[in-house]
Write a structure and sequence with these properties.
CATH topology of the largest domain: Rna Polymerase Sigma Factor, Chain: A
Number of helices: 7
Radius of gyration: 31 Å
Order of helices and strands: HHHHHHH
CATH superfamily of the largest domain: RNA polymerase sigma factor, region 2, helix turn helix motif
Structural class: mainly alpha
Number of domains: 2
């Protein structure tokens, strides 16, 4: 008796093909991608592409299993390329924590500068936040505050001096 290949353009045919080859394709995808979630996506995409291209499947050229593996191979390549251009996403169960000494130092400096800014007068604090932290042009800040651009420049100069003195009083060494 001749073994009949399921018709992939019908829902029952796709289900039968999935039951017959889904687990094996999933194993291949996990080994290729090293990611269970991505492997599941690869299997789904493989069967979706097979369903869409069902009219091109010819069992006289290759068995269904071989055809599905060739589709899976292309899906794995596509997913690998897509993953290479996207930054890695942190797992929700594994928070990304930079425990290096540099991270600690950056955090400490950040806190000290923030405290130093709090100790400055309102004009000095605002001018530094607008020009330095928000990287706004002097002319734009001057227009917003209704003062000449030269005044903004001098306030930045004196605000930086005041911040340096405040940080030195706090024991910070530059």
């Amino acid at each position: 008796m001749e073994r009949r290949t399921p018709a992939l353009d019908e829902e029952d045919g796709v289900r039968a093909a999935y039951r017959a080859h889904g687990a094996e394709l999933f194993g291949f995808a996990v080994r290729s991608l090293s990611d269970h979630g991505l492997a599941e996506e690869a299997v789904q995409e493989t069967f979706l592409r097979a369903w869409r291209a069902a009219d091109r499947f010819d069992p006289s050229i290759a068995p269904l299993r071989t055809w599905l593996y060739s589709i899976m191979r292309n899906v794995v390549i596509d997913l690998t390329r897509a993953r290479a251009v996207r930054p890695a996403v942190a797992s929700p169960t594994e928070p990304v924590v930079d425990t290096s000494a540099d991270a600690y130092e950056r955090a400490l400096v950040s806190w000290q500068v923030e405290e130093g800014l709090r100790r400055l007068g309102e004009d000095h604090r605002r001018i530094l936040i607008e020009t330095y932290y928000r990287a706004r042009p002097y002319a734009e800040v001057a227009a917003e505050l209704g003062i000449p651009e030269g005044t903004v420049k001098s306030r930045v100069y004196y605000a930086l001096r005041a911040l340096r003195l405040t940080l030195e009083e706090m024991g910070w060494e530059a």
